[in-house]
């Protein structure tokens, strides 16, 4: 009879161990899911911030360009170069985008 009680106790302990392992797996899975979601949220925030920074840099570059064009126009350099203002605008925009791209990757 003592052997049967001992076997029953072993079976009960094994069942309890299985339940604890399952609970631990579920908790671990929930923690992983939470960590993934937090990572996704942080990445989204980083992309938003990067977009804002890029936009600020573009606006800054555009303002500098406008200052340069205004200075060149005032001194008459724009007409003497033979380049149209729209062509200069396109070149400045392309140059500003290239500079920002280079700055983002350093």
Write the topology of this structure.
Blueprint: H1 2-75, H2 77-81, H3 85-104
Helix pairs in contact: 1-3
Question: Could you please describe the fold and organization of this structure?
Answer:
This protein has one domain (2-104). 93% of the residues lie in helices and 0% in strands. It contains 3 helices and no strands. The protein is rod-shaped and about 110 Å long.
Give a brief rundown of this model:
93% of the residues lie in helices and 0% in strands.
Give descriptors for this structure.
rod-shaped; 106 residues; mainly alpha
Which assembly state applies to the chains in this document? single chain
**Distinct helical segment count:** 3
Instruction: Please write the string of helix (H) and strand (E) elements.
Output: HHH
Q: What's the mean pLDDT score?
A: 83
Overall spatial form:
rod-shaped
- Name the structural class: mainly alpha
Q: Low-confidence stretches at least 5 residues in length (pLDDT < 50)?
A: none
Radius of gyration, taken over Cα atoms and rounded to an integer in Å: 33 Å
Instruction: Write down how many β-strands occur, each being a DSSP E stretch of 2 or more residues.
Output: 0
- The figure for the number of domains is 1
Distance between the termini: 77 Å
**Largest sheet entry:** none
In terms of DSSP E residues, the strand content is under 5%
In percent, how helical is the residue content?
over 70%
